[in-house]
Task: structure prediction
Amino acid sequence: MTLGLILLFFAAANEPKYFDSKVAPILTRRCAGCHNPELRNGELSVTDRESMLKGGTRGPALVPGKPEQSLMIQVLRHEGQLQMPPGPPLPHREIRILTEWVRGGAVWGRKP
Result:
């Protein structure tokens, strides 16, 4: 991948439309069934940015700009005892999308 393509991809990851088209569908399909305002497993909801920044019983899920420090990325990579989702990990492509979104500042859009 050339530097130009990398920069283009990074630029897209910090725009609300990137969240709406790439990130929101993953959060909705893979996470929100358990981590929503009603269930709040682990006291975490993924349905709004403020809830993810506040986090749950294990602390903030997001550290904007720092995917390596973001608990959400760590657990999705199955890097430790806490692994989400339970069972097989997400496809690498989806983890990469979420990682780049966090690296780009975890900019929220209009969804979910």
Observations:
- The chain has one domain: 3-103.
